[in-house]
Each structure stands twice: as C-alpha cells, then as structure tokens.
C-alpha cells in the first residue's frame, strides 16, 4: 500500500539495536565453522526452529548461545558490517548500536577485539553509527564496574552506556554506582526499563541512574503520573514492536500500545532490538505496526522525527533531519 512505501522510504534513525541480535543463523553457522565452535544445532533450519520464545529469558538463553561463535576481531567487524548494510536498505541514516562486552570477555575474548571490530565497521560502514556499551544486569555491579574500567582504553570508541538482559529482579538501582561513574566520564546514559519490569523501574532509571532515554518503557502507561512526567521531560522511549510481540509483552500487534504512547505525547519511536531473532529489521517493524494499528502519515512523520530528536547526534547534525 501507499502508507507502506512511505514508512519504508522515509529517513530514520535506529536507537535500539543489540548488535549480537543482528547475527543471522547463516552467519552463526559460517562463524562456527570458521572458528571451530561446536553448536548445539545441526543446521540453520534447526536453529531457526528454536526461535519460539515465551518471554525475555527464553530468548536470552538462545541469544547468548548464538553469540558464542564470536571470537575474533574480524567476526565482530563482519557482524556489524552486515547489520549496517541491511539498515541502509531500510533507509536508516544513523544507528546507535548496543553491544554486550561481558558476553564475550567472559569467554576469554579480549575487550580490544570486541570494541575494535565493531568500531571499525561503524567507521567504514555505509551509514552513520555510534556505539553504546551495555552492562548485563543479571551480573553484579562489581562486574559492570570492572567492565567499564576495562573499556576505558577505548573510551573514544563509544558514546554511552546502557543496561540490558534479564530485567525482573535486577532493578536499575543495582547499578547506581557504575552509572554515576559513566556520567563522570561524560558518557551518555540509557537503560532498558519497563519491558517486562514494572513502571517503578522506569522511575528509578530516570531518577537514580539519570538516563537520557528509556529502552522499551512501554509499561509506563500503567502509571498515569509517570506517563505525564515522561512526556513533560520529553524522555524518549525506544520502542521495539516485533520484539514485544515475540516476547509476549503484547499478545498480538493489534494489542501494542505504540499509538497510545504517541497520543500521550511521549517521544516514542520504532526500533528492531534483535532483528535476526524477532522476525525483522527496521522496515519490517514499521510495516507490522502500520498494518496492525490505525496509524497515519502524521504518525509516520512523528516516529521518524522522534528517532532523530532522541538520537545523540550533535545538535548541528540533528537539525538537518528535524
Ligand atoms: C534484549 Cl529484548 C532485550 N531485552 C533485554 N536485554 C536484551 N538483550 C538483547 N535483547
Ligand atoms: Zn533491547
């Protein structure tokens, strides 16, 4: 349809993409072969068949297994370059890319290889791209602090820190000290909150971690006072529609609250999260929400505009897109 080609062709920024979540099964098998890593699956088809998730944890288990094939700097480069080329095809002009160093350093991969590989692709790639280092919230704050210190020789290669992995039982306040340290270092701050966790986690991410964006944040609507406050702050919410339906945050796309978020005046936009696992890249997410919800041209433009407003692009760069 006409709406479909408009949302596909419009310039957009992607602010919520886990680079390890862009590893397609074909690349997982190719890297496993290249590195002599043994997988628990016999074929691409068998691996894809295991992508039947019931919640966040059931996904994370498979996502960490997939990432086990990443051993060399070139592996991180190849994964990132494949994502950037795919994003360009969806008219993504700028991407702020999450990576999970602890997933790799825990397997003995040097921090240098993780960051240099991703960063080299980000500088050589076909679109603008910046990196955000994420801490795994199921691990301790001490582990996060040690990870930040280990990344400091590469301080100029990432622009911010984030918080991801298993949300419930690991509230933002568990990471107050490491976020304070990142803030002192002049890093941008974001955190996943209100995906599976309650609205109270969004509140502590904002008030205690002092995040500049909330990743997901869709459960904010359960708390009307919080919703009004996030709107007044123009606190961006990096919403991921296909992720939310695959992980059963919403049963079906027609149940997704994206339109309610926009109607509440929130700075929400569309992102892919883990495109290789959730059934699609940016435009697949746009098409899915526009097919399921009563969204029109004004919403399309608002979502694209919000993606650039919420980005960490320098003011002068940002202006060009607003
Ligand atoms: C993630 Cl969807 C999601 N939520 C939390 N952590 C993650 N890491 C990768 N994808
Ligand atoms: Zn995410």
TrEMBL record:
It comes from Massilia eburnea. GO terms for cellular component: cytosol. InterPro entries: A_deaminase_dom (IPR001365), ADE (IPR028892), Ado/ade_deaminase (IPR006330), Metal_Hydrolase (IPR032466). Binds 1 zinc ion per subunit. It catalyses: adenine + H2O + H(+) = hypoxanthine + NH4(+). Keywords: Hydrolase, Metal-binding, Nucleotide metabolism, Zinc. This is Adenine deaminase. One of its GO terms (biological process) is adenine catabolic process. The record marks 216 as: Important for catalytic activity.
């Amino acid at each position: 349809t006409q709406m479909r080609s408009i949302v596909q062709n419009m310039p957009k920024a992607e602010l919520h993409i886990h680079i390890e979540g862009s590893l397609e099964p074909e690349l997982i098998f190719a890297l496993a072969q290249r590195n002599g890593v043994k997988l628990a699956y016999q074929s691409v088809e068998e691996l894809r068949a295991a992508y039947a998730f019931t919640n966040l944890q059931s996904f994370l288990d498979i996502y960490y297994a997939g990432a086990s094939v990443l051993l060399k700097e070139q592996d991180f480069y190849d994964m990132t370059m494949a994502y950037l080329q795919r994003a360009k095809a969806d008219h993504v002009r700028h991407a702020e890319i999450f990576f999970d160093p602890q997933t790799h350093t825990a397997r003995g991969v040097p921090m240098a290889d993780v960051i240099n590989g991703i960063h080299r692709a980000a500088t050589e790639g076909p679109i603008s791209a910046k990196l955000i280092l994420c801490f795994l919230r199921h691990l301790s704050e001490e582990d996060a602090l040690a990870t930040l210190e280990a990344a400091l020789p590469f301080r100029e290669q990432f622009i911010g820190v984030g918080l991801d992995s298993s949300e419930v039982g690991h509230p933002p306040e568990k990471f107050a000290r490491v976020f304070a340290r990142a803030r002192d270092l002049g890093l941008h701050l974001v955190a996943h909150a209100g995906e599976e966790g309650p609205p109270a986690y969004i509140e502590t991410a904002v008030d205690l971690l002092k995040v500049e964006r909330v990743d997901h944040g869709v459960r904010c609507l359960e708390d009307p006072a919080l919703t009004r406050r996030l709107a007044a702050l123009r606190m961006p919410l990096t919403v991921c529609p296909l992720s939310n339906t695959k992980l059963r945050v919403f049963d079906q796309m027609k149940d997704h609250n994206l339109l309610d978020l926009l109607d509440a005046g929130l700075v929400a936009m569309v992102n892919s999260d883990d495109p290789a696992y959730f059934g699609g890249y940016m435009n697949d997410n746009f098409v899915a929400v526009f097919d399921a919800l009563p969204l029109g041209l004004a919403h399309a433009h608002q979502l694209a505009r919000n993606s650039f407003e919420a980005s960490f692009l320098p003011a002068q760069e940002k202006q060009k897109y607003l």
